[in-house]
Input
Amino acid sequence: MASANTPKKRRTDNQSSEETPIYVPNPHLEKMKEDVLYHFALGTGTHDFPALFGDVKHGMGIPSIAIMLHELIKLLYHSKCSNVTIIRIGTSGGIGLEPGSVVITKQSVDATFKPQFEQVILGKSVIRNTDLDEELAKDLLECSKELDQFNTIIGNTMCTLDFYEGQARLDGAICLYTEEEKLQYLQAAYKAGIRNIEMESSVFAAMCNLCGIRGAVVCVTLLNRLEGDQITTPHDVLSEYQKRPQKLVEHLIMKQLGKK
Ligand code: R2B
Ligand code: URA
Output
């Protein structure tokens, strides 16, 4: 039975059965001749939305987010925006945390546990700082206490270049280390204050720092990596987990707008 919250899947001719279109729970939209997105200065009558934005899909990892951030930051610059805050939300593998916990990143560290992002520029290694805004992290933690819905902590986040060997998994196509070595590495990461692992935070932090943007990284942990590598949690549970960083950031935004 469809409930009010169940997205109705509508399919157009050029969509495969794998695609899940965005669901907008507003029957009035379909009846509007034109929809003007006032704040973006765009309208469906004046702009070809599918041509402009139809292929918008961001990938995974440092290269994808770096490209997106270069263009997003230029967009904000050309728009003369000031006092900008950007928050990366997403998923991660936890270390020593119950799955579904949310980690607000203090520092993003590399796979050798160093709080830095290395970029090769003009053939030379350039090391960039990966601290994130401390006040913003504290504000987010405060929001989590107000929400009181899921475990939330501030901790360091390891940003890797790979999901399998790079995150010490045993289930990749290649794995030339033992389970014991894997656990030693993850336990050493825990000792270094690392509480989760993902693939974008380091370049995000470095770019925010260089461009004077307040940045935060808020990721939910899908599993405890000290207990396994495969993500076998049922889909509905994972979907609920993925909403947690959004809920936290939404609470912060509403608070800042004076609506909470
Ligand atoms: C978290 O999840 C993705 C890998 O599954 C990657 O984008 C990340 O940082
Ligand atoms: N994303 C990651 O990068 N690693 C995980 O283990 C889960 C999600």
